[in-house]
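User: Some background: our group keeps a shared notebook of sequences we're curious about, and every so often someone picks one and asks for a predicted structure to add to the entry. Today it's my turn. The entry only has the sequence so far, pasted here. Could you supply the structure so I can complete it?
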Amino acid sequence: MKPVKDIKLDKDMNTDKLVRELYESGGFTAKKLGVGVDILETMMKEKDCTTFLSFPACIISTGTRGVIRELVKRKLVDVVITTCGTLDHDLARVWKDYFHGTFDADDKDLYKKGINRLGNIFIPLECYGTVLEEKMQPILEDLFNVKQNWSTKELIWEFGKRLESEKNGKESIMYWAWKNKIPIFVPGITDGAFGSQLWMYYQEHRDITIDLFYDEQELANIVFDAEKMGAFIIGGGISKHHVIWWAQFKDGLDYAVYLTTAVEHDGSLSGARLREAVSWGKIKEKASYVTVEGDATVLLPLMTSAVFDRLL
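Assistant: Of course. Here's the predicted structure to add to the notebook entry:
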């Protein structure tokens, strides 16, 4: 039996010390957060472990984008799997600003003003669809003049490469993925503005193709070549599923940390705790894993900062 200890705050507290205090407090999500940081530290330290990072697009509309960027920039992850909207927000914010808003805004009024609301983030039309069409179409013309068949990983790296000369290009996740040769895979590439721009280009260039099988082959090679596998999974949906789906072909993940706000009782993948994935062989029976319930815009910076304190 391990005694519960009171959290002690002092002026010399850094994030790592705070997380250790949260763990020792024994309470609820606080302890899970501490366990999660321990697992992340082990996973990222282990040289033979291939580390996957998955997340949905919504957090990239917020300043949490900076945390994801740092994980990629500092090479603490080996593979990224995400959704199409991540590309939308990551690119759009290179060229335009998003703005503070409120959950309680009048959405009818926002629609009349040409402002999209994503939670409490306001995104004017000119900062999203308009700027993406203006900037993306010339790049697509350049790329498809070179060849007509691209995987999502190849396209993303090419866009990242072209951000090097942009004023805010180095704030982009895609830029650092290209720079550090960390693959980003987007299995649902048509489900967002980036995919819509591909489709629009396709209207007058019927010979172009997006080769998802090439992506899957690269993922297969990564998985089958891995000695061990770990995953930092933020949110559910296709990005989460694609990681654990591929993990089952290697007898499951050795390490996993999952951040979620979804409920379990509806049977959804997003709500499914990691223990459920053990029954599918997507996480090993003896794996180190934890599900941490809470908002990723709070938990992710806190946990990542603690990992940085330990590793860097």
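Suggested note for the entry: The CA atoms of residues 156 and 174 lie 6 Å apart. The chain has 13 helices and eleven strands.
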